[in-house]
């Protein structure tokens, strides 16, 4: 079995390339989180990033209440199984009972306030409701009762004055519920990040049109737009750009002027038809270019005026993988999210894989085998095979020089955690 380890690039093995780790560090060091905020209804705040610490002005729960349908009692009255107590009152949720006299019980329902005097609730399954023949109800408690049993204490979830959530938290459904539980209806969040996109390539056309010889559909636009929408960005889509320096300079200038960040696809290699990197160098700064990874070696990163720039490769799987590894973390940091790093978990490989001189990201699916989660490999790992990403649940990260043998422990990046 092999341990997961992160290696830096052996410069002799991959001259001129930087490691995924170094690239991530370099990219994130350039982030300048948006400062502007806006108020939104909590119902509209899914995936938004909290701009301030929020404190509760109330206890949640606001009062001691019953965790069960059953009988509220004084535990002192139920120190032996079989105690019989008259039922003095009935307290449904939403009503407040009266003082519970010693030697009596109150019929009570989940969420109802514990009456004063009582210190425990017995679940109804442990009780027999009795009629003493005089029209008065009694209850037989078939257990010994401990003080505090089945009582939810005031403030046990959130105490009044405590911090509910901190600035920089990206809000998931459970956070929306949490904010509502302390009575908040409107909150201050960071404004949305504006991301401009364009897609280079003379061969690229938009779906809906018929393909001519040598043309392909602009699938990257749809993958990238989906990713940006999932990350709650405002998108400025500048469309398809022909492979000329003039057109690339023109669109890059427009993109940089209209957004916080520019993300493009294609045209970042060393081919004669690749103009994105050259345009970036002319209009701004290129701070990083080639990464020792597969898929996705060429990723151009830099700045044009105040806009950050990330030129993703053209191959559809490379776009997807490099977005998840680099653009995602950068977007999160720009949005002001504290926790912006990619999470890896350990799973077992159900395949062999040879070592190479770049860090690899294999498309895999998890399945249960002998009570363990094992990763199964998609049959075709080409960077143009987008069905591999659609088939997969996540990526296996193979470090430089790591050879995988079936049964090895490997590092897995689940897609669900990534957008
Ligand atoms: P490039 O990086 O521009 O050389 O593109 C690499 C490969 O990705 C080529 O096979 C392109 O045809 C393909 N490609 C580039 N842009 C797109 C796009 N927007 N949608 C789908 N495939 C693309
Ligand atoms: Mg191209």
Spans of 5+ residues with little confidence (pLDDT < 50)? 1-12
Radius of gyration: 30 Å
Bound molecules: adenosine monophosphate, magnesium ion
Mean pLDDT: 95
Q: Number of DSSP helices?
A: 7
Main sheet properties: 6 strands, mixed
Q: Beta-strand percentage?
A: 25-35%
Strand order of the largest sheet: 7-4-6-5-9-8
3D shape: elongated
Structural class: alpha/beta
Into which percent range does the helicity of residues fall? Answer: 10-25%
Total strand segments? 26
Gap from first CA to last CA: 31 Å
Write the layout of secondary structure elements.
Layout: H1 20-29, E1 37-41, E2 54-55, E3 65-66, E4 70-73, E5 83-91, E6 105-108, E7 120-123, E8 127-131, E9 137-141, E10 151-152, E11 163-165, H2 173-181, E12 186-190, E13 194-200, E14 204-205, E15 216-217, H3 219-230, E16 234-241, H4 245-258, E17 261-265, H5 276-283, E18 285-290, E19 293-294, E20 298-304, E21 307-312, H6 316-334, E22 345-349, E23 359-369, E24 372-377, H7 386-391, E25 394-398, E26 409-414
Parallel strand pairs: 5-6, 13-16, 13-17, 14-15, 17-21, 19-23, 22-24
Antiparallel strand pairs: 1-12, 2-11, 3-10, 4-6, 4-7, 5-9, 8-9, 18-20, 20-21, 22-26, 23-24, 23-25, 25-26
Helix pairs in contact: 1-6, 3-6, 4-5
This protein binds adenosine monophosphate (AMP) and magnesium ion (MG).
Which properties best describe this structure?
419 residues, alpha/beta, six-stranded mixed β-sheet, 7 helices, elongated, disordered N terminus, binds adenosine monophosphate, binds magnesium ion
Give a verbal description of the structure:
The chain is α/β, with parallel strands linked by helices. The protein contains 7 helices and 26 strands. Helix 4 (245-258) packs across helix 5 (276-283). The structure holds adenosine monophosphate (AMP) and magnesium ion (MG). The site of magnesium ion has 7 residues, from loops.
């Amino acid at each position: 079995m092999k341990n997961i380890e992160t290696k830096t690039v052996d410069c002799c093995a991959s001259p001129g390339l930087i490691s995924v780790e170094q690239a991530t560090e370099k990219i994130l060091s350039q982030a300048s989180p948006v400062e502007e905020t806006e108020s939104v209804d909590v119902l509209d705040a899914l995936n938004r990033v909290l701009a301030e610490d929020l404190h509760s002005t109330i206890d949640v729960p606001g009062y001691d209440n019953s965790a069960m349908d059953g009988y509220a009692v004084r535990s002192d009255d139920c120190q032996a199984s079989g105690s019989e107590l008259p039922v003095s009152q009935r307290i449904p949720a939403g009503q407040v009972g009266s003082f519970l006299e010693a030697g009596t019980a109150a019929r009570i329902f989940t969420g109802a306030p514990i009456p004063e005097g009582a210190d425990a609730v017995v679940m109804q399954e442990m009780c027999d409701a009795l009629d003493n023949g005089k029209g008065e109800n009694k209850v037989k408690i078939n257990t010994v009762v401990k003080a505090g049993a089945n009582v939810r204490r005031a403030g046990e979830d959130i105490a009044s004055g405590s911090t509910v959530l901190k600035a920089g938290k990206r809000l998931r459904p459970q956070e929306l519920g949490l904010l509502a539980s302390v009575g908040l209806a409107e909150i201050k969040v960071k404004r949305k990040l504006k991301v401009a996109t364009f897609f280079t390539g003379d061969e690229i056309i938009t779906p809906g049109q018929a393909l001519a010889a040598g043309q392909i559909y602009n699938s990257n636009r749809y993958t990238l737009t989906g990713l940006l929408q999932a990350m709650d960005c405002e998108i400025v889509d500048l469309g398809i750009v022909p492979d000329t320096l003039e057109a690339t300079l023109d669109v890059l200038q427009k993109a940089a002027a209209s957004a916080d960040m520019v993300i493009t696809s294609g045209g970042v290699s060393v081919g004669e038809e690749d103009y994105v990197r050259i345009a970036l160098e002319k209009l701004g700064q290129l701070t990083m270019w080639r990464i020792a990874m597969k898929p996705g070696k060429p990723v151009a990163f830099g700045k044009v005026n105040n806009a950050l720039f990330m030129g993703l490769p053209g191959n559809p799987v490379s776009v997807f993988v490099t977005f998840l590894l680099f653009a995602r973390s950068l977007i999160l940091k720009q949005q002001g999210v504290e926790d912006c790093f990619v999470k890896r978990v350990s799973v077992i490989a159900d395949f062999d894989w040879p070592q190479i001189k770049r860090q690899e990201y294999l498309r895999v699916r998890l399945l249960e085998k002998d009570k363990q989660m094992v990763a199964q490999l998609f049959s075709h790992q080409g960077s143009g095979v987008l069905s591999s990403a659609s088939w997969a649940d996540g990526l296996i990260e193979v470090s430089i020089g790591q050879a995988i043998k079936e049964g090895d422990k490997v590092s897995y990046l689940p897609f669900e955690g990534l957008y």
